[in-house]
Amino acid sequence: KPSFTHLTGQLNIGGPIRIPHIIRNGPQFFVNYQWVRNRNASTTPGLMPTDAQKNGDFSLSPPIYDPMTGAPFVGNQIPVSRFSPQALALLKFYPEPNFAGSTRYNFQIPVVGATHQDAMQVRLNKNIGNKNQLWGIFAFQRVATDTPNLFGFLDKTHSLGSNTQVNWQHRVSQRMFTHVQLQFSRQSTATTPNFANRENVSAEAGILGNDQDPRDWGPPTLAFNGISSLSEGNFADNHNQTMAYTFDSLWNYGRHNITYGADLKRVQFNTLSQENPRGTFTFNGALTAPPGSTLPLGSDFADFLLGTPDTSKIAFGNADKYFRESLWDAFISDDWRIGPALTVKLGVRWDYSAPITELYGRLVNLDIAAGYTGAAPVTANNRVGSLTGLKYPDSLLQPDKGDFQPRLGLAWRPIPASSLVVRAGYGVYYNTSVYQSLASQMAQQAPFSTNLILQNSATSPLTLANGFNAPPGLLTNTFAIDPHFRVGYAQNWQVSVQRDLPGSMVMTATYLGIKGTRGAQEFVPNTYPTGTVNPCPLCPTGFYYMASNGNSTRESGQLQLRRRLHNGFTATLDYTFSKSIDDSALGGRGSATNVVAQNWLDLSAERGLSAFDQRHLLAFQMQYTTGQGLGGGSLLSGWRGTLFKEWTVTSTINAGSGFPLTPNVISTLAGTGITGPVRPDYTGQPIYDAQPGLFLNSSAYALAPSGQWGNAGRDSITGPSQFSLGGSLRRSFRLKDRYTLDLNVDATNALNHVSYTNWITVVNSQLFGIPGGANGMRSLQTTLRVRF
């Protein structure tokens, strides 16, 4: 139970600016300053190698085989003479287990991070005559965070952001108003990893081929099936800024309230960072598996001691990138009061987010031949594809300028003098923020950077010492995108019915439907199941390809009961039943992470429950203030009234079913260095009929037979149910005419009830079926505030 502290200070001051004999009727001003000093605590578990494993003793494990001879190691013991010097150098970062009795977790430490934050907001407001109003806003925020991890590595992040707005509102007439805004914002963020400028771990260990910039010193990432991965953050120094111009106007014409306007934004993303400068080694037991085995049935940690990773990847070079983006939008909307019982709102919006360019043309895509039989890099400095002859724009992506979004809404009272109200709406919403992540991946590609994903093989063996060298003629680019990629969008439609009930109750029933189109979808071309013959040995592979061919649907029904405030009591109860299905990220706003297909020739097999699908959700909110209304004790007087009145109690309860999880296998796609996405076979056994100590049945899944893809569906496991209870108690005490004391007591997870966030679903890991994380423990915060 690590100790923690949360300290917050706040100062508000405001009023008119008046300087005798200089400013008599100055602008109104408001200043707010917040000061935060927090130490945030958590308890982090992990699985560390035992002393026996560190000494090469695997007598308690299944047989492991010598990759040089193909024979089992005698006594399942790896001779010390066979240990890799690089592995021995990296072993020092793995701490000793600090508790026993578990084969899944044997290490746990308190992790305490720090957050220091200073923020200030300033607002000035001035009326000029009867028709003009000027106001401006300036805000800044400085944040410094210390983030330790399981291995005691401490990364530090500093950020400084500012936002300035100048606004002018002009009243043209009693029925028309116009507003103009200029806005400039800037955000600078710097991250310094634990080993930066301190210790060149890779060079000292004899690991060659990764970035030797002192800012990127440190160990490579080591990924295992069960043992905790060794990792730390990357250096970054990013400076982003936005200049925005906004115009909007309101015109009241009879029964019409018409609003229209436009925006123009010019955005800069200036980054100094590397994607993976120290490199990543993945160990899955493939090298110590039985000879002839096509599945990773050996020991991942034994592979590590021998210094033979299954895959390696690295990406560095072209660290400084200067992205530029322009965004335009325009809209018009009419709020038409047709009659006392019917209001209709009609509108249309146009959004255009130009594909991002790089100031010096350092973007790279792949020019793909028909049938993915060939691939060659094409850069923004030389925009003609060598295979297809296609002429690419500066961004290497064709712009998508036709993003018109109609909107329709109505409110209708069908029965006069009745409380029944029907509301309905339809709208289209585009995902205009998709290009930034794409540009970041296109910039970290050859020929401007070293970018590799390699697989260990007889013709191209990998070792810890020499795992980042590409064989001659290998296509080293790891990401490509359809040059005709289109922005995803979602169609939303909604109908709700609301009616008053006896007892100050209001009932609302709502149906919401969403159809996502042009969702981002990824796959790895020219891959095939392990154990089959490569159908196209000369075809390029080893890269992710993104297209906009995905789609999604979501339908939900919600029933809400709300008690209006009466006698000091109000409450709301919501129940939502929903289902979301997709084969890609959800188009439009609210996008989830991209879906990478297991079988690139059968993308429809990826259709399944969305990662955010939560079938049932119940939410309850309550507030009660004592001494309100006749039934709430307002007539109490004397010392009883003094003690009882003006206390406000609030409570929130959220309970829901679990989110979907995907069963998967840590395995490498044949012919590539890409780990996953590979799924197992479903055996038909009950998934949740688990063995003692587990929450999932390991017998429900098995590794797919050689030469076949696994038939287990994506997101076919339901994760742990969710529950949270929070509350607060507050009251204000008047001390003097101008002094007030506020008391707040806030509780999160008030019952200290453990809710797990997910299960570990890696079938070939010894951690399968156990929780992958839990919610925070109970926290009580008491606040005293004096206002004057």
- What amount of the residues lies in strands? over 45%
Tell me the total number of β-strands.
37
Question: If helices are DSSP runs of H or I spanning 4 or more residues, what is the number of helices?
Answer: 6
Largest sheet: 25 strands, mixed
Distance between the termini: 38 Å
Query: Could you say which overall geometry the principal axes of the C-alpha atoms support?
Result: globular
Percent range of helical residues: under 10%
SS-based structural class? mainly beta
What would your notes on this structure say?
It is a single chain. This protein is mainly β. 5% of the residues lie in helices and 47% in strands. The chain is built from six helices and 37 strands. The strands form six sheets. The chain has a 25-stranded mixed beta sheet that branches. Strands 7-10-11-19 form a four-stranded mixed beta sheet, with no helix packed on it. A hairpin with a 6-residue loop joins strand 15 and strand 16 (375-379).
Question: What's the short story on this structure?
Answer:
With 788 residues, this protein is mainly β. It contains 6 helices and 37 strands. Strand 17 and strand 18 form a beta hairpin.
Considering the chains and any ligands shown, give keywords for the structure.
mainly beta, 47% strand, 788 residues, 5% helix, 4-stranded mixed β-sheet, single chain, globular, 6 helices, 25-stranded mixed β-sheet, 37 strands
What's the SSE blueprint?
Blueprint: E1 5-16, E2 28-46, H1 51-54, H2 85-91, E3 107-128, E4 132-148, E5 154-173, E6 176-192, H3 201-205, E7 221-223, E8 236-253, E9 256-273, E10 276-282, H4 300-305, E11 311-316, E12 320-339, E13 342-353, E14 357-358, E15 364-368, E16 375-379, E17 404-412, E18 421-430, H5 435-443, E19 450-455, E20 479-481, E21 489-501, E22 505-523, E23 544-566, E24 569-582, E25 595-596, E26 608-609, E27 616-625, H6 638-644, E28 648-656, E29 660-661, E30 681-682, E31 701-702, E32 717-718, E33 722-736, E34 739-748, E35 756-759, E36 771-774, E37 779-787
Parallel strand pairs: 7-10, 20-23, 22-25
Antiparallel strand pairs: 1-2, 2-3, 3-4, 4-5, 5-6, 6-8, 8-9, 9-12, 10-11, 11-19, 12-13, 12-14, 13-17, 15-16, 17-18, 18-21, 21-22, 22-23, 23-24, 24-26, 24-27, 27-28, 28-33, 29-32, 30-31, 33-34, 34-37, 35-36
